[in-house]
Design goal:
Helix content is 55%, strand content 0%. By secondary structure, the chain is mostly helical. It has one domain (7-71). The longest helix has 17 residues, at 33-49. The chain is extended and about 45 Å long. The mean pLDDT is 86.
């Protein structure tokens, strides 16, 4: 959280919300708030546990973090 106009501070979060909107929310009707909560929760689980990220050597964020713990000998 830096200065006004420092877009790189929020780049990771902005990328996530962009993916959430374009891969999920804009494609599925959201009839109720409960439906929206369930869809966003499911997408977050998918995004972190299954979705491959090119910046993580084509691994999910969870798998990438586990691989880094093993490499650093902390695990």
């Amino acid at each position: 959280m830096g200065d006004v106009g420092a877009c790189w501070d929020n780049a990771v979060v902005e990328r996530f919300f962009g993916s959430l909107k374009h891969e999920s929310i804009f494609k599925v009707a959201q009839p109720t708030r409960e439906h929206m909560i369930q869809d966003v929760t499911a997408y977050m689980r998918y995004y972190n546990q299954e979705r491959l990220h090119s910046s993580n050597s084509d691994m999910s964020p969870v798998k990438f973090e586990i691989s880094q713990i093993k490499v650093s000998c902390l695990g």
